[in-house]
Amino acid sequence: MSPRHNRARGGANPDPQGEQGDRYGGSQRSETWQGEEWYVRHVAGASAPGKRYRCPGCDQEIPGGAPHVVAWPEYGGVDDRRHWHKACWNAKDRRTSRVQRSRNAPKY
Asked: What segment(s) does the record annotate as region Disordered (predicted)?
């Protein structure tokens, strides 16, 4: 009797990010904001990397492993991605554009 093979043999390797590119366990969609197309990806907390991010909506820190939203313009690159709290992304139209930051806070 030959050994059992559970792996698929031959052919192309499947896409490790899935069909929609949900690398961190979230779903991706497109939204229009301020007359521009934005890609929005929901990141699940359990699959979020351990990095900390600063939300541009409230200027507060998003701790590592917390569920959040990643948004970037349609024609933007990797440097244009921003990590938002889900509530801040949903309230982005109701917020003012002048967020007061301390002297040493990042500009993004």
From this structure: 1-36
